Amino acid sequence: MEFTEKVVLISGATGGMGAEIANQLSSKGAKLALFARREDKLAEISSKLGKNCDCVYQKCDVKNQDDVVRAVEFTNNSFGKIDCAILTAGVLVPNPIQRFDSKIIKDSMEINFMGNVYFIEQLLHIMKKQKSGTIAATSTLPDRRGVPGWGAYGASKAALSWLLESLRSEAKQRYNIDVITIKPGSVLTPMLEDYKRRGAITPEKAASLIIDGIMKGKKIIQFPFSQVALVRMTDAFPVNAYDNFDIDQQKGEGYPSVDEE
Ligand SMILES: NC(=O)c1ccc[n+]([C@@H]2O[C@H](COP(=O)([O-])OP(=O)(O)OC[C@H]3O[C@@H](n4cnc5c(N)ncnc54)[C@H](OP(=O)(O)O)[C@@H]3O)[C@@H](O)[C@H]2O)c1
């Protein structure tokens, strides 16, 4: 897939990866529709992309299904088609066991999972008619094993990975729609501001790997290689092995220390 003249919808376009994907796609001649909650930041990004980039934007909170319906309509009305959607909107919120809180889990599910579900529903209406399109949504590299303290995030991303996997072959065979799972390891974006992760890569590198993966027609885009190898290895460990690993190390550097309720 080449991006010249292609219409690309990006959710989470104000974020570290989303904004950089927009930046790199603008120089490939794509027409962009950008969405996030911070409208001032969307305006700033869109004006930075310059006059040569055909770019529209609109405020969209992915927790609000009506916002997502409007976002997809707005893109289709602006450009007359949607070739590709790169869905990156997401939040990372720790949920320590000392204050187990269903609200955090619900919120993560609503943004990281249902936010993508709402987009996929609307995109399918359009792409089924087109009999073409690409939906690339962002999960996470460790989406198979629960990590202490990160259950809300992990559960929402695991749900998304499962959903995308279940859609992939049917979307392709019935409607010629490509469904791609993006599985980043650690990327140095605002999301990781408070956390230190060894081997983290820049948003520029992540965006170029994502764009390159879509252009090559990959079904799963996962990076960086060192973390992919590590996750594959740890996936194979027996479950009880983790009882002997230090909890704080499993949670990772920067995890907030929390008192008992
Ligand atoms: N950074 C990493 O190491 C890493 C690793 C694995 C997976 N990921 C995933 O990669 C994706 C991009 O992350 P990032 O690192 O670029 O994070 P980021 O810089 O924090 O950006 C997150 C983006 O999501 C948007 N967003 C958050 N809540 C939203 C809501 N309710 N409605 C609409 N937009 C919302 C934010 O925009 P507004 O605040 O303007 O709404 C922002 O544009 C996320 O799905 C993340 O979970 C990141």
Summarize the entry for a quick read.
This protein is an alpha/beta fold. Helix content is 46%, strand content 15%. Strands 3-2-1-4-5-6-7 form a seven-stranded parallel beta sheet, with helices on both faces.
Explain this structure.
Helix content is 46%, strand content 15%. It is of the alpha/beta class and 261 residues long. The chain has one domain (7-251): Rossmann fold. The protein has a seven-stranded parallel β-sheet with strand order 3-2-1-4-5-6-7, with helices on both faces. The longest helix has 29 residues, at 102-130. The model has no long low-confidence stretch (mean pLDDT 96). The site of NADP nicotinamide-adenine-dinucleotide phosphate (NAP) has 30 residues, from helix 1.
Helix content: 40-55%
Ligand list: NADP nicotinamide-adenine-dinucleotide phosphate
CATH topology, anyone? Rossmann fold
Number of domains: 1
- SSE ordering: EHEHEHEHEHEHEHH
Radius of gyration over alpha carbons?
Answer: 18 Å
Mean pLDDT: 96
Strand-pairing-aware structural class: alpha/beta
End-to-end distance: 52 Å
Q: What is the makeup of the main sheet? A: 7 strands, parallel
Per DSSP E runs of 2 or more residues, the count of β-strands stands at 7
Strand order, sheet with most strands: 3-2-1-4-5-6-7
What are the segments in which pLDDT stays under 50 over at least 5 consecutive residues? none
What is the C-level CATH assignment?
Answer: Alpha Beta
Q: At the fourth CATH level, what is the homologous superfamily? A: NAD(P)-binding Rossmann-like Domain
Report the total helices.
8
The coarse silhouette is globular
Into which percentage range does the β-strand content fall?
Answer: 5-15%
Second-tier CATH architecture:
3-Layer(aba) Sandwich
